[in-house]
Amino acid sequence: MQGHIIPSFPVFRPRRLRQSPALRRLVSETQLNPRQLVLPLFVRPGRKVRQPVGAMPGVFQLSPDELLKEATEAFRLGVPAILLFGLPAKKDERASEAFARNGIVQQTVRLLKKELPELLVITDVCLCEYMSHGHCGVVHSGKKGTRILNDPTLKILARTAVSHAEAGADIVAPSDMMDGRVRAIRAELDRCGLADTPIISYAAKFASAFYGPFREAAESTPQFGDRRSYQMDPANAEEALREVALDIEEGADMVMVKPALAYLDLVWRVKTTFGYPTAVYAVSAEYSMIKAAAARGWVDEKAITLESLLAMRRAGADIIITYAAREAIRWLNE
Ligand code: PBG
């Protein structure tokens, strides 16, 4: 490899630097730090609601009051940011609750920014939780079957992002994968006097089986078909780089690769190609698989979680979105 001069005499003995914890720490190349972790949280209407998500032990659908408690606790522990998903009281075919001034996310953002101003609130901007059919865009049913319409969806996404930012969201995170959404959202934010709200785009988001447990948490399973006409084919890496380039060109301030572990090659390529702040989303099944195996005593939950997160950092991720943020911080502080 270029630049790697390995002396053959005297014999190079890599184990010399592994002899003690202090030596190993001295030459450690990658750091995992609490300030890099983002915790996803799910809010639903009501009071004192803590509805466990079956497929994600430790994850709950929370009413705003409970979410504030959870966020406060996480912030005290050292979690710098949360990623907020909303479950509206009602779904329809226009996703009206997604951009309602008093929608569940908007209310919760206001509450969080009032009570916990220093916690960064990132809002997921997508329509699947708000659409009765569970797709991330407007559905058109015609002679040739159903299609997800791109441009009509952009308007709704842009309105949604503005409503989140107006409520006080620190960062908006479009996760829908429609073409041109970053440009549309940036333009609408700017037009509404919200030029300072950054966008973190789910730039390379794959149509992945690793989202399975999330769809129970967010009640966003598509009622028909799948998401392969908008999310990316897991086979494609070059295309992922084009997606990232487009989002940057359209005004994304930070970019994301999702899922994480199975896509670390892309984290590396995105970081080295663009040098942008790069996030990775360790998605629901990545979390649930570890929980399930740990519950059976098959893996060491702490070791496997920290090793996974470290690998994401080593691949180039600056920011890691993970349901295990709190546990990870507790373990890092031990
Ligand atoms: C919304 C969205 C999804 C996830 C984040 N935002 C689900 C999907 O695209 O089907 C998945 C997150 C996870 O699995 O943890 N579009």
Characterize the overall form: globular
Largest sheet: 10 strands, mixed
CATH class type: Alpha Beta
Cα distance spanning the termini: 37 Å
Q: Find the count of extended strands (DSSP E, 2+ residues).
A: 12
CATH 4th-level superfamily: Aldolase class I
Q: Within the CATH hierarchy, at the fold level, what is the topology?
A: TIM Barrel
Give the DSSP E fraction (strand runs of 2 or more residues): 15-25%
User: Which second-level CATH architecture applies?
Assistant: Alpha-Beta Barrel
**Could you say how many structural domains there are in total?**
1
| Low-confidence spans | none
Return the average pLDDT rounded to an integer.
Answer: 95
Percent range of helical residues: 25-40%
The hetero compounds bound to this protein are: ligand PBG
What's the quick description here?
This protein is of the alpha/beta class and 334 residues long.
Task: Offer a few descriptive terms.
single chain; 334 residues; alpha/beta; TIM Barrel; two-stranded antiparallel ribbon; 11 helices; 12 strands; 38% helix; binds ligand PBG
Topology:
Blueprint: H1 21-26, E1 37-43, E2 50-52, E3 60-62, H2 64-77, E4 81-86, H3 104-115, E5 120-125, E6 138-142, E7 145-149, H4 151-167, E8 171-174, H5 181-191, E9 200-205, H6 212-218, H7 238-250, E10 254-258, H8 264-274, E11 278-282, H9 284-295, H10 301-314, E12 319-322, H11 325-333
Parallel strand pairs: 1-3, 1-4, 1-12, 4-5, 5-8, 9-10, 10-11, 11-12
Antiparallel strand pairs: 2-3, 6-7
The structure holds ligand PBG.
